[in-house]
Known about the structure:
Layout: H1 5-35, H2 44-78, H3 85-91, H4 94-97, H5 100-111, H6 116-123, H7 134-158, H8 162-170, H9 175-203, H10 207-212, H11 221-230, H12 235-258, H13 281-310, H14 314-318, H15 321-353, H16 360-365, H17 376-390, H18 393-435, H19 439-467, H20 471-476, H21 484-493, H22 497-523
Amino acid sequence: MIRSREDRVWISAGFLSLAGILLFVALAVAALLAAAPEASYPPLPYLAHLTAFTLWQAFLSTLLSVAVAVPVALALARRGAFPGRGIVAALLVLPLGLPVLPAVFGLIEIWGRQGLANDILVWFGAPRLSIYGLAGILIAHVFFNLPLAVRFLLTGLDAVPRDEWRLAASLGFSRLSLFRFVEGPALLRALPGAAGLIFMLCMTSFTIILTLGGGPATSTLEVAIYQALKFDFDPARALALTLLQIALTGLVFQALRLAPDVEEAGSTLSSRPFRPDAVGLIATLSDGAIILLFTIFVAAPLAAATFAGLNADLLHLISDPLFHRALAISLGIAIAAGLFSTLLGYTLLEARRRFASGSLARRSLGLTDFILLLPPLALGAGWFVLQLRLVWLGAGAPFAVIVINALMAMPFVARALGPALDSHALRTERLALSLGVTGWNRLRLIDWPALKTPFLTALAFAMALSLGDLGAIALFGDQNFITLPALLYAKLGSYRGTDAAGLSLILGLVCLALMAPALRAYSSGGTSRA
């Protein structure tokens, strides 16, 4: 096949980017392999316990998230317009880019021993719930993954042809019949993809397990990798745990690839087809109650964290030189990782688009979702050992953290940018070629005006995810190289709750400012897959 010069440039850039990613990963693995003989490998009972709990908590978290998401998605699908629609639309996307630690702080305020949820349980005669341990892990995972599951299921319901709804209305289907013949099949098509992605996210969860796990009995592979290097410096144990983690996530990843991709066009709360089951007072009240409970569950921890932060001595916090250093480092890492992730993702997507569908080269360039296979702690562990051997740990730490955060954000960049890039190319490719508009002129005159919103959305999510990340910085951080999440975790660990509340509020507000383009696009009906 004869390719234009522009095609060759993009394809070369794509494969160079791919080679760089593979080299970065290979160096991390090689460093662990080289250091492994210096320590003993972990015993099988220890590995079996970690594996069992990692899979068990991921299974329970996925089951709860999907089970609760089904009635919420059905209620939202029936209600195309309602008071507070913009708030609910924002809550469907906000937890994804929200830093984990501020949300965890809010969950502790609501579900902790003295929290409002426990007060309600006691009022009904139930025992108080401990936020630490398996219960806290499940609550936190459902908080973050429930909106994601709702979006998947809403998109599956949106894909039902309008003719089916009209036919169901003309036949007088009851709500049960509608669920059996229309909604149920649509949900079944969306459920595997939603459940698989949530299961993988829960398997590789780090900050939630670290803060709410409560001890060795509730430790996962991701946390064990961190402990093996940060506290024991046992590269052999870190290597064994890393390989086991990659094997497990690889199995889930392969299963996930078999599920249909239901988020091709994103999901919004835009106008819906006529729903015969949405008519009537009982239907309106039941749907309203479900939407209200969902809103309270997601919004209450955010509100609690906000109120607690406002009661902190914010002036004292922001005048602390350590805060200034953490904020500057956090913003520097977030901007650099966000730009790098967006550029890298765009290069791979553009190169992949220029190959025929189904070709081996095209599949090899579709690496963005494959990054989910690589736990950030595993990459960080390898580069931590490598830089320690080369005696440039302090100088090389920012580079490692930025690249790791950029790679971890790439799947979200691809989901925000990929569909828009494909549809835009389908509309304009032939016209641009016929007019002879190529290269920089095409990017400036044709591509950028149409792709500006998806680009900004991808960049916003990548920066927000990097800003709130605790994984890589947990290995490389110290007093001279500290980020806001690391500083917040240190405040929580030293039981300085008031300072932690103030830092949670500041970190959340900075992330919200970075996510503003994505939230605006999604709540107004724009396409966002991140």
